Amino acid sequence: MKLTELNLHHFRNYDEAQVEFSPQINVLIGENAQGKTNLLESIYVLAMTRSHRTNNDRELIEFGKDAAQIKGNVQRELGSLKLELDIGKHGKKAKANHLEKARLSEYLGQLNVILFAPEDLALVKGAPTVRRRFIDMEFGQVSPKYLHDLTQYRDILKQRNRYLKQLQSHEAQDQLYLEVLSEQLAAVGGAIISQRVKFLSELEGYAQKLHQSITQGKEKMTFEYSSTVKDAATLTEVELSEALMELYQQNQAKEIFQGTTLYGPHRDDVRFLINQKNVQTYGSQGQQRTTALSVKLAEIDLMKNQTGEYPVLLLDDVLSELDGARQTHLLKTIQDKVQTFLTTPGLSDVARNLIKEPRIFHIRDGQIIPEKQPELKTEVFYPTKQDKTANKE
């Protein structure tokens, strides 16, 4: 999967922009506040229909304008695909090959991306919400069923929490309706946990190999799914749903008193263990960064296995956060494997020596300036008298 061309119209600080990309590594060089991260963000938004930097779509539109548009040409194994995302005051519209999708969820998966930004180093030491968001965003790209179940779960959860608050304030008294909502939530909640456990098991396999390579076999990394359901990783989907329903029944009074749902996948977490020790708690900063790097890079192979194609990799100023050894491992992993977009104020000597034939773009005040590619040196051959004689013979 490759993004061959991108067109921006009133997106962030880009009034109009059109650019063609290399199928290998594209380096976006620029100082702060010039637009290099905005360009990377536009690719993410085109793929995910939402930004990783803001929940306010209005911020994606150029100041003083009413709407923004992102267009992209994607080359997939089955052929080319034209994507278009319109962002306006009244929401977003997404099209694939000029056909508008009724729901944004139907559009997801047309262009798969993996984003690795400095804040992703908080994947390990950050709050559980960071890891849940990671799971939902990444797995939702490759599994329409997971995305559907997650959307359904969030809708039911919102209804159930609203009704719990009404019961808490005595605005409502019908606990039969609460039981109906609990049954619905438990059914889809069990499906979500079951899928998460399977996805994480596969991701763990890829991450272990990468982590052992980075640490030269000195460390073994494992994942542990931490759930409000006891022994969740060992239960079937049906058993998970039954266990959730039992928790809702046993703790009904407690949930009404607090006015919120206390059990389910929206409360779950993932622990990363290094040699059986929780790296969030006991790991050094170096171990935490190596773990985050291994997990993010493992997504590349996971998506390839799930979809049949490699995703597009977006690296937002990550090199400056990694030491030489981790830079080397990152760049060797992606070289000749996945189309990559890398933002940086400037390339380090390590990066310049490792990246083969990058296409470099300089970003200045919302302008994309391709760096002139070095011309191939050609030697002019002037035949001697002896050569001419030989040719005639």
UniProtKB/TrEMBL annotation:
One of its GO terms (cellular component) is cytoplasm. It comes from the Bacteria. GO terms for molecular function: ATP binding; single-stranded DNA binding. Coiled coil: none annotated. GO terms for biological process: DNA replication; DNA synthesis involved in DNA repair; double-strand break repair; SOS response. Its main location: cytoplasm. SUPFAM superfamilies: P-loop containing nucleoside triphosphate hydrolases. It is found in: Cytoplasm. HAMAP family: RecF (MF_00365). Belongs to the RecF family. PANTHER family: DNA REPLICATION AND REPAIR PROTEIN RECF. This is DNA replication and repair protein RecF. It comes from Ligilactobacillus araffinosus DSM 20653.
